[in-house]
Fold each of these.
Amino acid sequence: MGMKCPHCHKSIENESQSTKDWNSFGYQSPLITCPKCSKDFLCKAFHEPAAEGIDKKWLNVGIPLKRALIYTAIWAVCWSAIYFIPSLTIPLKIRVLLLGLSGLFMLYGLLDWWTVIRIKSGKEAKLLLKLVQESEKRLQDENYVRRLYNLGYKVPKKYLPKDLQ
Ligand SMILES: [Zn+2]
């Protein structure tokens, strides 16, 4: 993930945050230290879930389920066209296109079914809880909270040191 330092305007790879923290929700520390000029800045794509809360959409099965059904239907139509229409009546180019589409939508469908299963089984909720706990841990660190506060980040009162409240 590339980003630009607002102080020295150099592009930096987000290595300092370490890839092990990375998650698709964007729930990780928004505080970035530029490896080139060592100044701090906030990355708007990242959020402290303990401070900002969890977006309920991550636990809502409706949208991924709808998408999974649509993709599966498109996949089935493409696949049936290949399978049931006699091959001689479809030009090769169209067959290749149908095969490609069929594979693509099968992949999309599987990814969404995977999300549906993760939400339904409680795996997603468990992961989000873990991310909130990690976030709380970071916010217990007064030095870290002061750095966020100085950059204008809205730290909830309960995490602020007495002199900043
Ligand atoms: Zn910099």
Amino acid sequence: MEDIIAIGFDLFNTLITADHGAIKGATQRLILSLEKSGFDLEHEAFKRAHRESAVRFIEETRKEGRETHNRFWISEALGTQGHTVSPDDPRVAKAVDAYFSAFFDHCHPIPGTVEMLEKLSGRYRLGLLSNFTHGPAARGIIEHMGFAPFFEVILISGELGYCKPHPMVFHKLAEALGVQKNALIYIGDDPLLDIEGAQEVGIQPVWTTYVKDRDIPYTPGIARGQTKDPEDTVSRISTWDEFLSLLDGKIKRD
Ligand SMILES: [Mg+2]
């Protein structure tokens, strides 16, 4: 095996899945929080405006590789209901936390993940790099899943200002782990964000198709167009056992 010293992991659909109820539950809590703060809302219209605004902000900002934040689309959706509120209003911050609190109930570790991390943490430096708008929520989920003790480095796009596949976040991962990029592998489910992103900066990618192979619906996030599968030269795993044997054997396939 190449001299791999460190492994970087994606979060959603790599280590955890979010079930169908995540976005629905989160939106309900968001509305409840805003109503508690005194905003009068027409629920269906607000939900529609919130979703449309989120899609637009995410598409626009991510085009340049920058990360955005929920406070912008919550503020804009409130505006459509006649409430002029700054994205930095504390009532909006409270609503963001309420929104993501639902994720604790709707996120589930992929079976065997804690055991896999436990095994690998003795042999490699482990890092986590996630595209997630709200850093505190991502960190809360990682903690809640019991993953936190295994990671030397946890990087969240919402805190970095940039998101995958921007090279900056992968540079940051290698730097934070204190390794050269050719001593690092990165495992994720998304052909563009994770696989191409890592390849672009010289990090060896591993494609996990756990979710794809089991037809688990992709939540959370905004549905993107069909992405092309990575080239055959990219290592592919569907279970943690396969990942462990890949690490034990020759990981470089070309
Ligand atoms: Mg993912």
